[in-house]
């Protein structure tokens, strides 16, 4: 209270000082809650990337546009899960069947990721969510494989 008086020439009552102190404490709690949420999301993203790396036996270039797109997709997916907003359109079922058949290896990776979500968050991906994950992972892995072959790896 002396510091406020020194700089502002205002004397605060005990109640006013307590009220201001509570704002500081609440602000710190909010920051730590946001940090914990971000850390939790980052941990899930890293786990998913590790599943992909091990499944396809590749390294993923983290400064590529495909990596950024994939991470953004996963972040939005996690936000939808936490907000309990899920997408599953019956119209896309035929497309899902075609894509999972065409990219069977990527679909096998999706099943591992889905098992991870089930064990970690008790959530299973809908077929529409799996479809988008297949497309993103396929793009990510195809580009990484192309980079490897271009460099003779």
UniProtKB/TrEMBL annotation:
<dbReference type="InterPro" id="IPR011608">
    <property type="entry name" value="PRD"/>
</dbReference>
<keyword id="KW-0677">Repeat</keyword>
<feature type="domain" description="PRD">
    <location>
        <begin position="36"/>
        <end position="147"/>
    </location>
</feature>
<dbReference type="InterPro" id="IPR036634">
    <property type="entry name" value="PRD_sf"/>
</dbReference>
<protein>
    <submittedName>
        <fullName>PRD domain-containing protein</fullName>
    </submittedName>
</protein>
<dbReference type="InterPro" id="IPR050661">
    <property type="entry name" value="BglG_antiterminators"/>
</dbReference>
<dbReference type="Pfam" id="PF00874">
    <property type="entry name" value="PRD"/>
</dbReference>
């Amino acid at each position: 209270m002396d510091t406020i008086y020194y700089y502002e020439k205002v004397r605060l009552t005990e109640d006013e000082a307590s009220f201001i102190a509570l704002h500081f404490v609440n602000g710190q709690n909010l920051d730590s809650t946001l940090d914990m949420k971000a850390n939790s999301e980052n941990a899930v993203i890293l786990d998913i990337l590790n599943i992909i790396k091990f499944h396809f036996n590749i390294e993923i270039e983290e400064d590529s546009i495909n990596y950024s797109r994939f991470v953004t997709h996963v972040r939005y997916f996690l936000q939808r899960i936490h907000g309990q907003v899920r997408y599953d359109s019956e119209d896309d079922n035929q497309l899902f069947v075609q894509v999972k058949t065409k990219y069977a290896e990527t679909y096998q990776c999706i099943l591992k990721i889905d098992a991870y979500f089930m064990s970690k968050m008790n959530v299973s991906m809908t077929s529409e969510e799996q479809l988008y994950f297949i497309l993103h992972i396929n793009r990510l892995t195809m580009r990484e494989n192309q980079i490897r072959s271009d460099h003779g790896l």
